[in-house]
Amino acid sequence: MDDGKEDSTMVMTLCWKTVVVSGRGTRQTLLVGFGLLAALCGMAVSGFLYSFNAFSDALKDQLQLTQSEVEWISSVANIGSCIGLTAGLFMQRFGPQLTNCVAALLSFAGFFVVAASIEKRIPTHFSLMCIYFFVIGQGGIFTYMACMMTTAANFSPKVRGTVIGLIDSMYGGSAAIFSAIYNETYGKADSPYQQNIAGFFYAGGIIMTATSLFLFASLWWMPWEERNQTSSIADRNNARGNMEETRRKEISSSGGQFPHNHIMPASVQNQNDTATSGASGIAENCGGSNLDQSGSVVSPLRCVGDVSTESTTLIRQEEQEPLLAVMPNTDSSQPELNTLQLFRNVNFLLLFWAFALSTGVGLMFMSNVLFFLKAYGLEVQYRGLFTIILPICSLVSRFVSGVVSDALLVRHVSRSVLLVVSISLLVIAQVLLLIWPEKIDILLLNAVTVGVSYGSMWCLVPTMTTTIGGLKYFGQNWGIVMLSSALAGMAYQALYGKVYDEHAQDLTHTPPLAGANVGDDRSAASVCLGKQCFATTTYATVASCALSLLLLLVLFVRDQRQLWRQKARAS
Fold first, then answer.
1. For residue 302, what are the β-bridge partners?
2. At what angle do helices 474-506 and 67-82 cross, to 10 degrees?
3. Alpha-carbon span 185 to 346, nearest angstrom
4. What pLDDT sits at residue 252?
C-alpha cells in the first residue's frame, strides 16, 4: 500500500513539473493563462468593422452615397483590417505593449472622426470616409496581431490549432456582438435616416480604446519554447533527485533489495555491483540488459546523463517515457521562413490563393447581405437574422475547426480536409443562389455556408502558415496572407457596386417590384431590385470558389502524402 502511495506521489510530481516547473513557475503559468483571457477580450472587439452590413444601408442614405461608394468604403475598411504586415513587423520588433498603445491611438482617432463626420461637425466626403474607415481597420489589426501572435507563441504547437481557433472564434464573433448592439440599441428604427450611426461609432471608439489599454497591462510575450528550454537542467535534476531519494528509502526498508520496475540510482547500483556479476560493466557502458539479483535479464537499459552530477542512471525501457515528459522540446526541424522564402513553397502558394479567392467572396457577401435582401423587399423582416447568423456561424466554425483539426492531425490527417469540406458546401450554395436567388431559404443557406467557410479559413490558414513557415516571421507572413483576402474582396465588391448601380439607374423610371421596400424617395434612384442586381457577380463568385476548391484538393493530396510518409518513418 505504501509503495502505491509513493508511486502516485511520483506521478503527481512529474505532472506538476511538466505543467508548471517547465514554465518556470506558477507566476508565468498564471500570466499566460490570464493573457489568453485578455486576448479573447481583444479579439471580441477588434472585428468591429465586420458588422458593416448592419449599418451600411443607413450609412448610404444618411451620407447620400451611391452603391459603388459604399462598396469602396467597405473595401478600404477591409484593407485597413487586413494590412497586417506593418502590425506584424511592429509586433515582432516592439512586443504587445507598444502594439496595443498604437491600437488605442488609431481606434480613438478613427472612431471619433467618423462619428463627427456623420454628425456633419467636420467636412464629410466619400474619399475622407475611406481614410477614416481605413484608420479604424488599422486600429483593429494592431489589436488582432498583438493577441494572435502572443497567444500562438505562448502555447505548445500540439494545442496551437485549438488555441488559435478559440481566440479567432471571438474575432469572428465580434461582428455578432456589435451587430446585435446596433440592431437593438442604435438601429431600431425602420427608416435608415432615423438610425443613430454616430452614437454607435462613439460607443465603438470608447470600447476599442479601453480594451487596447487593458491589453497593454495584461498581454505578455512568453514563448512556450523559451519557457521550456530555460527551465530544463535544474528542474529535471531536482525531479530525478527526488525519485532517487524515494528509491533509496524503498531499498533501505526492503533490506537492501532493489524493487523491480523502478529507477535504480547510480549510487545504489555501484553499491550492489558485487552481488551481480556483470552489473558494474553494464553501468559503466550504459548498455546491455538489466539483471535481477539472480543474474536474469529483466529488460533493456537506457542511459540518461545527469548534467549537474555527471552521474549515470539506469532506467527500464518502459519507464523512459514518464521522465521524458519533463524534458524540453529540442526538435529543431521546424522551418523558419520569411515571406520571400515562403512564396517559394508550393503548399503555401496553394493555401495563399485558395484563401484569397474564397475569403474575398465571403467579404463581398457579408458586406452586402442587406442589399441582397433589399433586392426582394426582405430587408426589414430579415435584417436582424442575417446580420447575426453570419458572424455566429463564423464564430462556431472557427472554434470547431481548431479543435477538430488538432484531433485529425494526431491521427495523421491533414487540417486542409476541413477546408475542402467547407468550400465544397460554399460552391453548392452559390450555384443554388444562381438558380433560385429569390428564395429566402437559399439566401439563408448561403449566409450559413459563407460564415462556416469564412470562419474555417481564418482559423486554419494561420495555423497552417505557422506549420509551413514557423513562428519567427509569422507576423509578416500572416499579414501578407490577410492582405490578399482584402484585395480579392475589393475586386468582388467593385464588381458588385458597378453592376448594382448600372441596374439601379434603369430603375429610376420603373415601378418597384411588388412588396419591395424602396425606402425614402431621396435614395430611390440608387435602389436595385431583382436578380439582375447581383447575377453577374454571382457567376464570378461561383467560378472563384470552384478554383479555390481545386487548389485545396491539390494541397490536401500533397499534405496527406507527407503525413503518411512521416507516419511510415515513425513506425
1. 315
2. 180
3. 49
4. 64
What are the backbone dihedrals phi and psi of residue 80, each rounded to the nearest 5 degrees, phi first?
Answer: -60, -35
Question: Residue 484, class by beta-carbon neighbours within 10 Å (0-12 exposed, 13-18 middle, 19+ buried)?
Answer: middle
The Cα–Cα gap between 463 and 215 comes to 23
**Cα distance between residue 228 and residue 235, in whole Å:** 10
Residue 219 — φ and ψ, nearest 5°? -110, 115
**What whole-number distance in Å separates Cα of residue 446 and Cα of residue 450?**
6
Biggest CA pair distance of the chain: 109
Q: Is the pLDDT of residue 227 over 80?
A: no
Whether 484 contacts 358, CB under 8 Å: no
Residues 6+ apart with CB under 8 A from 352: 343, 481, 484
pLDDT of 316 reads 40
Amino acid letter, residue 401 = S
CB burial of 219-251 (b: ≥16 within 10 Å; e: otherwise) equals bbbbebbebbeebbeebbeebbeebbebbeebb
pLDDT digits (tens, 9 = 90+) for 526-555: 678 888 888 899 999 999 999 999 999 999
Give the Å distances, CA to CA, from 3 to 6, 229, 269: 5, 33, 20
What is the bridge-based pairing of β-strands 297-305 and 289-291?
A: antiparallel
Q: Collapsing DSSP states into helix, strand and coil, what is residue 394? A: helix
Q: List pLDDT tens digits, range 241-279.
A: 666 666 666 666 655 554 444 444 444 444 444 444 443
Q: Which among 137, 130, 132, 118 is positioned nearest to 48, based on CA atoms?
A: 137
**DSSP 8-state class, residue 156:** -
Does residue 25 surpass a pLDDT of 60?
A: no
For residues 442-458, give the mean pLDDT.
Answer: 92
Hey, CA dihedral for 110, 74, 50, 137, is it positive or negative?
Answer: negative
Ordered alpha helix ranges (H), 219-285: 224-230, 232-253, 266-271, 279-285
**Grid cell for residue 540:** 464570378
Q: Which residues of 77-98 are buried (b: 16+ CB within 10 A; e: fewer)?
A: bbbbbbbbbbbbebbbeebbee
Place of cell 537542467: 233
Distance of CA 113 to the CA centre of its chain: 30
Identity at 101, one-letter amino acid code? C
Ordered alpha helix ranges (H), 23-63: 26-46, 52-62
Residue 510 has a pLDDT of 44
Closest among 141, 171, 163 to 395, alpha carbons compared: 171
Per-residue cell: 181: 448592439
pLDDT of residue 257: 53
pTM of the predicted structure, to 2 decimals: 0.66
